[in-house]
Amino acid sequence: MKQPDCPLCQTDGGHILWRDAFSRVVLADEPDYPGFLRVILNAHIKEMTDLSPADQVKLMRVVWEAEAVLREVMQPDKINLASLGNVVPHLHWHVIPRFADDPHFPNPVWGQKIPHGNRHAVPADLAVQLAHAFNRRLAPAPETEAR
Amino acid sequence: MKQPDCPLCQTDGGHILWRDAFSRVVLADEPDYPGFLRVILNAHIKEMTDLSPADQVKLMRVVWEAEAVLREVMQPDKINLASLGNVVPHLHWHVIPRFADDPHFPNPVWGQKIPHGNRHAVPADLAVQLAHAFNRRLAPAPETEAR
């Protein structure tokens, strides 16, 4: 079911923090937003209402774990959640830690920049801390269990 | 639990299409985006992970019904879903019908405008059609049932 022209079918879409057969969590490459996560469905499906009710909940449970991991590791002032997909119509959720002094706050990250916004200072091993938190909260991937 | 300084505690937040004791669906006043819906939790709660797991799913079921209603009534090219709350930290979901020729497509509605974008033509009774679809799909509000 992989689409040849879809970047989320053809690549991981970021640095993998956790994955299973159904979905994956990646750390996005967004220099202004350390900790910007994406929860990506592994299948090429466009809208939430194209999923079965059980799969809708299954995907959101990963989104909410991503929110919980960011709150635990980064203590943001607000979490932003969004499923847009206008450019890449393959279900993926943006899970974004927002800080009152970040480059767009209180605007959405897609809105107007605030001139005095700052990149939030984060520990050098942020990706490791996030991955540990995911693997503690969610079952490890089947391929990891089998080793 | 109503907050005196919260507009979503103090007002409906738009034209009510459907409501029950837990949440409500309003048609937002967004002139560029006819059919822009908001699903608003009635309680003043900030993040999805502040809700119980059962209430997380309960709220999302209304979001997905909103997506289904928009697809049924307006046949958009894409649905955008977002819970931001940087300005008003009271849980509310934006459910936005997007069209390939709309004022921002394929950017998010909070992003850069496309000069040649169009307001999508809609029937004059759009709000009535949406409200009918919600009331057919979701149980009527308790106060309506009692009448």
Describe the structure.
Two copies of one chain form a homodimer. Chain A is an alpha+beta fold and 147 residues long. Helices cover 29% and strands 19% of the residues of chain A. The first copy, chain A, is built from four helices and five strands, in the order αβββαββαα. A five-stranded antiparallel β-sheet of chain A has the order 1-2-3-5-4, with helices on one face. In chain A, helix 2 crosses helix 3. Chains A and B meet through helix 2 and strand 4 of A and helix 2 and strand 4 of B.
Question: What structural keywords apply?
Answer:
homodimer; 147 residues; alpha+beta; five-stranded antiparallel β-sheet; 4 helices; 19% strand; globular
Task: Show the helix and strand layout.
The structure is a homodimer of 147-residue chains.
Chain A: H1 7-10, E1 15-19, E2 23-27, E3 37-41, H2 53-74, E4 78-83, E5 92-98, H3 126-137, H4 142-146
Antiparallel strand pairs in A: 1-2, 2-3, 3-5, 4-5
Low-confidence stretches of chain A: none
Helix content of chain A: 25-40%
- Compressed to H and E, one letter per element, the order of chain A equals HEEEHEEHH
Shape of chain A: globular
Task: Describe the structure concisely for a colleague.
2 copies of one chain form a homodimer. Chain A is α+β, with helices and mostly antiparallel strands and 147 residues long.
